[in-house]
Amino acid sequence: MTWEILNILAVSAFAFSGAIVALNERYDIFGTFILGIATPFAGGIIRNIALDVPVVHVWEQGYLLYVAFGTIAVVYFFPKSWVMSWDRWNIYLDAIGLSAFALQGASFAIENNFPLGGVIFASILTGVGGGVTRDVLAQRRPMVLHQEIYAVWAMLSGLLIGVGIINIDSAWQTYFLFISIILLRVLSYHLGWHLRFRDMYRL
């Protein structure tokens, strides 16, 4: 039940985010649905390809496809003035998707008996893959390439799960990490945290 809820939240958030970006870029209905579907599912596909795991199971989650289609339809057919005003909330939607998919990626790697490096790698790819795909298709600079901290939070999820600090079989620990990553991502955005070290070494 824990993972079903997280998957629904992640798919809804990323589908919503992808559809809003598409509408802001003035995509038609086909383009909006393509971008809205690509955002929540691209991360899992990229992860499976990179880890040499069959991709087919990504498409076997039928109800999640319906969740994505339903979310995109709501966004597309709502009054455009409302939808455009929601763009300011995209950072929060992206944070939810990043957190949930990072946890899902780490869980996937654990279930497939990958070592720590594989768990971290799967967490990063699953967490950031959808957002990167969305931004590339919309011809925007991917968030992962910004100075602000983004992929690090997905890496942190994989590390905590991979070394056993967070037990993914525990619902409360899973939700605690999920909420913590969302808060860290939002704080890093609003407070301007970044990984730029060059200023530290100026003479």
Topology:
Elements: H1 2-24, H2 29-50, H3 62-77, H4 80-86, H5 90-111, H6 116-137, H7 151-162, H8 171-190
Structural overview:
With 203 residues, this protein is mainly alpha-helical. The protein has one domain. The chain has eight helices and no strands. The chain has helices at residues 2-24, 29-50, 62-77, 80-86, 90-111, 116-137, 151-162, 171-190. The longest helix is centred in the N-terminal third of the chain and has 23 residues, at 2-24. Residues 199-203 have low confidence and may be disordered.
Q: How is this structure best summarized?
A:
Helix content is 71%, strand content 0%.
Q: Keywords, please?
A:
8 helices; 203 residues; mainly alpha; disordered C terminus
Integer average pLDDT: 84
Percentage of β-strand residues:
under 5%
Q: Would you list the SSEs in sequence order as H and E?
A: HHHHHHHH
- The coarse silhouette is globular
Number of domains: 1
